[in-house]
Amino acid sequence: xxxxxxxxxxxxxxxxxxxxxxxxxxxxxxxxxxxxxxxxxxxxxxxxxxxxxxxxxxxxxxxxxxxxxxxxxxxxxxxxxxxxxxxxxxxxxxxxxxxxxxxxxxxxxxxxxxxxxxxxxxxxxxxxxxxxxxxxxxxxxxxxxxxxxxxxxxxxxxxxxxxxxxxxxxxxxxxxxxxxxxxxxxxxxxxxxxxxxxxxxxxxxxxxxxxxxxxxxxxxxxxxxxxxxxxxxxxxxxxxxxx
Amino acid sequence: xxxxxxxxxxxxxxxxxxxxxxxxxxxxxxxxxxxxxxxxxxxxxxxxxxxxxxxxxxxxxxxxxxxxxxxxxxxxxxxxxxxxxxxxxxxxxxxxxxxxxxxxxxxxxxxxxxxxxxxxxxxxxxxxxxxxxxxxxxxxxxxxxxxxxxxxxxxxxxxxxxxxxxxxxxxxxxxxxxxxxxxxxxxxxxxxxxxxxxxxxxxxxxxxxxxxxxxxxxxxxxxxxxxxxxxxxxxxxxxxxxxxxxxxxxxxxxxxxxxxxxxxxxxxxxx
Amino acid sequence: xxxxxxxxxxxxxxxxxxxxxxxxxxxxxxxxxxxxxxxxxxxxxxxxxxxxxxxxxxxxxxxxxxxxxxxxxxxxxxxxxxxxxxxxxxxxxxxxxxxxxxxxxxxxxxxxxxxxxxxxxxxxxxxxxxxxxxxxxxxxxxxxxxxxxxxxxxxxxxxxxxxxxxxxxxxxxxxxxxxxxxxxxxxxxxxxxxxxxxxxxxxxxxxxxxxxxxxxxxxxxxxxxxxxxxxxxxxxxxxxxxxxxxxxxxxxxxxxxxxxxxxxxxxxxxxxxxxxxxxxxxxx
Lengths: 243, 271, 284
Hints:
Chain B is of the alpha/beta class.
C-alpha cells in the first residue's frame, strides 16, 4: 500500500555523486543555483543546463528530476508566454523560462541525492538546535505514514456512502469533515505514541546526543570540492563580464 | 453473488497486486481470506465495493459491473468494516455515527430512527447513545463501526482484520454476531490471520499469495497441505493439531471445543 | 533474593479522571522470570506498564500512593532516561517506535541519547542486529520493512541499551500467526541468552504457553490472579473475566467439568494428545 506515498519517499540511488560528502553536494548545488541565477543569455543558460543535466545523469537521478520538473514546467511555459506577449523576443523569453527550470533543478539536485539521514547530519553541522532537527526528521519520516492514514480514512468513509466529488461547493467542504476529523485524531494518537516511544529511549537525556553518523571529508571529497571551486570562479567571471 | 473474472490489478506505480483472479462467492457464504502481508487481500476486498476497479477483467456484484457503478451504489449492497475504528469514527455522538451511512444512502427520517434504535440495541450500545465515540473502549468502538455499517442492512458484509486489538469477550461477541448474520442469509467475508478465531466458524478458506489465489477450499481440508500453510504464514489451529496427533479419531477435525468434548467423552465413556 | 520489580500498595488515578486506573497493586518480579500480564481491554495493564518505566508520573500526571521500585530505584524520583537504561519497552505498533531513516540509525537512537562514545554505539548496534537476525537489514529504511521486521528493529533498539528488564506491550497483535510465533521465540532466546527478565502483555496466550513461567491477570484496575500458568488458566475466574484462554486449555477445562480429569493441565498440544492417546487406547 505504500505505493501511494512513494513520491514522498526518498529513494536511495547509488553513484559517485551520492558517495560524496553531503556538504560537497550542497556546495555543488549552491554553485549551480548561482550560475542559474545569472544565466541571462542563450549561451550561458545552455552551459548551465548542460552542467545540471550531466550531473543528474551521473548521479542516476535524471528520471526523477524530470518528473519533479514537469510540475514546474507549467510555470516555465507561463513565464515564456508572458514575456513573449510583453515583446521580449523569442530568445529572451526562452532564456527566462529555462532559467526558471535551471533554478528549480539545481536545488532539487541536492534534495534528490541526499538522504534524510545525511540532511540531518548537515543540519547538525550547521549547529541547528537538536529539537528542531528532530522535529524535521519526524515530520519527513511520518508524512508518508499520515498520507497512508488519509487514504485509508477516505476508503472507509466512501465505503459508508460518502461521495466526495458530489454536490455544490458548500456540500463538498462539509464532505471533508468525515475525513479530516479521523485524520487529526489518528495523528494525535500517533504522535502521543511516538512521544512515549521517544521517552523510553532516553530522548531528551542530553541536549547534545552523540551521533552514529558523522560527516568526514575524504581526500576524494576535498578534491571534488577544490576542483569545483576552481572551475566555478572563472565561470562566474566569464558569465558576469565576458559574454 | 460476487464474481471476479480474470481480474488483474496494477497500482499506478506499476506494482501488480492482483493477478488473474477468478472467484465466485455465492449468497449466504462464509468466506475467510488469509495470506501474508502483501498477498493482495486488501486489494481484493477493495474491488468488491468498487474502491478499486480492475485494470484487466471485471468484477460483478449481483450482475452489476463495478466499473460502471459508483462506490456509494455498491456499498449499499457491500458493507466493509475496516480494521482501525479510529480511521472512521468522527461524529459528535454514537447515534450520529450510525446515522451517517443511512443519511448518505438517502433513507427517510423515520426509517433512520428505527434502524438506529435497532442497531444500538443489537450491538449493546444503547447506554452510549449520546456519548462521543472517542470515549468508548477499543471493543466498543469496533462494535460501533459494525453497527454503523449493518444499520443500512447490506447483503454482503466484509470484515477487515476484525479481531486485531480485541480481547476474548469481544471476539466471542463478534463470533456470535457473524453466526447470526449467516442465519439471516447474509454473505460474510473475513480477512484475518487470527486462525483460532476463524476455525470454529468453519468457513470456506481462500489463501492468497503474491497476488494470486493459491488455495480455495473448505477449512477442514486446507490444513492437510503443510507447504500451503507455510506460504500463507499460518499456523495450524490447536484443534487441528490435536486431531492429527490422536491415534483414534473421528473422520474430520473438531470444529470447536464443544464438539471435541462430546466426541472424546463418548469415546471414553461409551464402551 | 531481592526483587527486580517491587510494587507495593500502589494506587493510581489519571489527572482529570475520578475512576482509579490501578487499585492496591502488589506485584513483585524476580530476576530471570517471564511474566505474562493478561486481562480484558481497559483492565489497567497499560497503566501498570507505564508506571514501571516512569511514563507515569513523569509524562502522565495523576494521583498516586504506594511505591514502585525498579532495580533498586524509586520510579517517581528517577528520570525516565535513567530508567530506560534498565528497562526496555517495546510497544504494540512498530510503526510508531521507529523514528529514523535507517535501521542502524534507529537502533542507535537510544545510545546516542545516552551519549555513549561512537565506537561503542557501533559495536552495540552490530551486536543487537546479530542477536535479532537483522544484520542484512541494517541499511534499510523503515518503509522497506515488513511489520515483523519492524518489530524486530524496535526490539533491537531497546536491547542495544542492555536493559535488565524487557517489557513488551502486545507486541504481536499486528502480526500474522507465523511471524508472531517467530517473534515470541526470539523473545525467549533473548531471555535464555542474556538472562533478561521479561514482562509481556498478550491477548494470544496460545503463543506463550511454552515459554512463560507465570501469569498475572488483571481486571478493573486490580490484580485478580497471579501464579503458574497451568494453575491460573484452569480457574473459573480467568474464564469469566474474558482472558483469551487457549483452545486446548478450554478443552481440558470442559473435559474436567464433564468428569474427565486428566490431572495436571497440559500446555502443549503434543502433551495433551499423548495423554488422550493413552486413555483412548486403554478404553478401546
